[in-house]
Amino acid sequence: MFGRRELAKLVFAGAVGAIGARTAAQAREAAETDPASDLRRTRRLNPDDCCGLIVDVQDYFLSQLDGYRRSKVLWNTKDFARLLGLFRIPVIATLEKPVEKNGALPQEINEELSDLSKTFEKTYFDLSREKPISEFIAGLGRKQIIIAGCETDVCVLQSCLGLLNQGYEVYMVENLLFTASPDVTAAVARMKAEGAIFVSYKSLFYELTATVENEKILEMSGPVSKDLSR
C-alpha cells in the first residue's frame, strides 16, 4: 500500500510525463511543418528530458561562507533536490576529491535524493571530463541539465562549458550557485555567452509544474518550496 505522500508522487509523475510527451510531440510536429522553426526555437524545460546536477556542495566550500549564507545554501539546495525528486528527475551529485578533506554531501541534501540519483567523486574541475560521470549522464538519455552548486567561477563554470561542448542544454539556477569569490561577473558572462540559460528557482518550479492542476497535485506530497528564502 502507498501512503498519501507516495501516492501523490506517483500520480504527479504520471501527470507530468503525459504533459511532457504531448508537449514534445507538438514541438516536433511544428518543427517538421515550419522550415524556419530552428531560427526561432525557444528552449523550454521538459521534465522528461531533464536531469539535475549538484556540484561539490561540501563542508570545505560551505565553510568559506558566513553562517547565515551557509545555512541558506544548505536549505535551498535541499529544496532543489526535493523538487526534482518529486518530478522523478534524476540528480547527479559530485564531490571533489579528497573527500576526507572536503567532506561528503550534507545529510540534509542526501536525504532528498531519489533512487534515480547517484553521487560521484571527481578530480577534474570540469565534471564532463570524468568518464564515469559523463557515461552516466549519457545513459540517462536526457539532453537538458539543471545545475546548482559551487564554485560558480571554477567547477560550475568549467562543468557548464564542458557539458555545452557535449551538446547538452544547460540551465543554471542562479540563486543556487555559490562561491567564496567576491565577484563572479566574468564567469557568469562567459557561461551566458557560450549558451547557458540562467533561471531562478521560482521560474524553474513553475516551468516544471506547468499547470495549476499539477501544482495542486504536487502540494499533496507535503511541503514544497515554490520560491527560495532571501
Folded structure, characterized:
The protein is α/β, with parallel strands linked by helices. It has a single domain, classed as Isochorismatase-like (Rossmann fold, 3-Layer(aba) Sandwich). 50% of the residues lie in helices and 16% in strands. The protein has eleven helices and six strands. It has a six-stranded parallel sheet with strand order 3-2-1-4-5-6, sandwiched between helices. Helix 8 (155-165) links the parallel strand 4 (144-150) and strand 5 (169-178). Helix 1 runs antiparallel to helix 11 and helix 8 packs parallel to helix 9 (185-194). It starts with a helix and ends in an 11-residue tail after the last helix. Residues 18-33 have low confidence and may be disordered.
Biggest sheet, in brief?
A: 6 strands, parallel
Helix content: 40-55%
Radius of gyration: 18 Å
Element pattern in H and E: HHEHHEHHEHEHEHEHH
Report the top-level CATH class: Alpha Beta
User: Roughly how many Å apart are the termini?
Assistant: 39 Å
SS field, number of helical segments: 11
Oligomer: single chain
Nearest-integer average pLDDT: 86
CATH superfamily: Isochorismatase-like
- Please indicate the count of domains: 1
Going across the biggest sheet, name each strand in turn.
Answer: 3-2-1-4-5-6
Beta-strand residue percentage: 15-25%
Low-confidence spans = 18-33
* Sheet/helix structural class: alpha/beta
Q: What is the CATH fold-level name? A: Rossmann fold
Number of extended strands: 6
- The CATH architecture designation is 3-Layer(aba) Sandwich
Name the overall outline. globular
